[in-house]
Specification:
This protein is an alpha+beta fold. The chain has helices at residues 31-43, 80-97, 140-152, 161-174, 181-195, 200-224, and strands at residues 4-6, 17-19, 22-25, 52-55, 61-64, 108-110, 119-122, 125-129, 136-138.
Amino acid sequence: MTDEIPLVGDRSTPGVVRVGSTVRRPLKPDSDFIHELLNHFEQHGFDGAPRYLGIDDRGRATLSFIEGFAPPHNGYTLTENAVAAGAKLVRAVHDLTAGTRFAAGGEVACHPNLSQPNFVFRQMEPVAIIDWDGTQPGTRLGNFAEFLWAFVHPAVYGEREPAARMLRVACGAYGWQGSGLVEAMLETVPRFLVIVQGDPGAEQWGMNELEYMQRNADLFRGYLE
C-alpha cells in the first residue's frame, strides 16, 4: 500500500494527503462545483491546475499531484519572471471562466486565496494554482487585486519604487487596463483581518500590511493607473 504523506503549509486544509502521484482531499459542500471546474480546465487544455480523477474508496476526492514546491508562507521575494508567470496563470483562469456557469452571477471564477502557498513553483517560478476549495464567482478587479497583494506581496520589497515596479510587472503580464486596482487592494486587507480575527499574530501582521498599503497607495496609483 502506498504511504499517505500529509500535505501541510500556510493555513492548509486539514486531511489533505499525497498518495503516490495523487492528492486526496476531504469532500466539502462545494466539491462538485470545484471538480466540474477542474474538468473544465482540463477540457480546455489548461495545465495550471490539478486534474480531477474521481472519488477514492474512502470517499475522498482524488486529484493529480503537481510536482514542484509550494512555499510554506507568503514572504518570498520573487523575480519579475515569477511575478509575470503568476499573473498569466490568473489571467488564464479568468479568461477560461468568463461567461461560463462557473462565473454565474459574477464576471469570472475567483480562487479564494491567491497567496504564494497556493501556487506550485518549479525553479522558483509558478506553474500551477492549487487548493481551489471555496472558489466562487466574482470580478476580475477584485481577484486580481488580491493576487497583487497576496502573491506579489509588495511589502516584502520594502518601501517605494521596487515594490511599485513589481506590481507594474504583474499588471503588464496580465494585460490589465483600467483603474481602481489600488483601492481594491486596500479593500482586500480588511477582509483578511476578518478571516483571521482572534489570531493575535495574524491580526498584527494584517494591520502592518494595511498600514504599508496606505503609506504607499499614492505611489502605487502613479505606477498602475
